[in-house]
From TrEMBL:
Record keywords: DNA-binding, Transcription, Transcription regulation
Organism: Amycolatopsis azurea DSM 43854
Record-linked InterPro entries: Homeodomain-like_sf (IPR009057), HTH-type_TetR-like_transc_reg (IPR050109), HTH_TetR (IPR001647), PsrA_TetR_C (IPR041586)
Protein name: TetR family transcriptional regulator
Keyword set includes Metal-binding: no
Length: 220
């Protein structure tokens, strides 16, 4: 492939990625066809998505990886800064701040947070986002560091609160992104401040007391 042809192909891929991310964020993954993505990307050929990316799953993975690189760089930088910290907030910050900082860097409007929320609620495509997260070395280290700060938390409660933390992070960031796109008021004026508020909430959740299971063994 010549340089010019390769450049055109790259430009087309970028147009498709941007269009797909926006449409998936605004309408959901299932509701958007490859043809709609091609049209939104200004491609006369309705098979452009399949030609450049293959399946819809491949397209979703490409969108996720488009953002995961910059986010991973921020995580690595933050991990270097905290070292072997024993402060729970440091580790929670490494979860929250990279996403917020990345979205702030892109500039409004953004669609990635809403895209992630849509994919995470779609049973067919959720495993893609989970798989991409599990392949992040920095994310694995962050979770390990967070757990080291909570040695007395029972394993089942730790797992439950991990699910809660993921839901809160995914959907609160998406809600802020939606409000910014629609021009509606937000509780915090900047992504940095929004990250701080979310870190506060997550720290409180992780450190909350655990109620003894007085009815253990009596069924749901």
């Amino acid at each position: 492939m010549t340089g010019t042809r390769a450049e055109r192909a790259h430009a087309t891929r970028e147009l498709i990625l941007t269009a797909a991310e926006r449409l998936f964020a605004e309408h959901g993954v299932f509701a958007v066809s490859n043809r709609q993505v091609s049209e939104a990307a200004g491609q006369g050929n309705n098979t452009a998505v399949g030609y450049h990316f293959g399946t819809k799953a491949d397209l979703i993975r490409a969108i996720a990886r488009r953002h995961s690189g910059p986010i991973e760089e921020i995580r690595r930088r933050m991990l270097t800064g905290i070292g072997d910290s024993t402060d729970l907030r440091d580790w929670i910050g490494c979860l929250v701040t990279p996403v917020a900082e990345h979205l702030a860097t892109i500039g409004s409007p953004t669609w990635f947070a809403r895209f992630g929320a849509q994919v995470m609620t779609d049973p067919a495509f959720r495993p893609i986002m989970v798989e991409e997260s599990l392949t992040s070395p920095s994310l694995v280290r962050i979770v390990e560091g967070l757990h080291r700060c909570l040695p007395d938390l029972p394993a089942d409660v730790r797992a439950e609160r991990g699910d809660m933390a993921r839901q809160l992070l995914v959907h609160m960031v998406a809600e802020r992104e939606r409000a910014l796109a629609e021009g509606t008021p937000t509780p915090r004026s900047t992504w940095h401040d929004a990250a701080t508020g979310l870190i506060d909430a997550l720290a409180g959740m992780w450190l909350a007391p655990v109620t003894p299971d007085l009815d253990e063994g009596n069924g749901p």
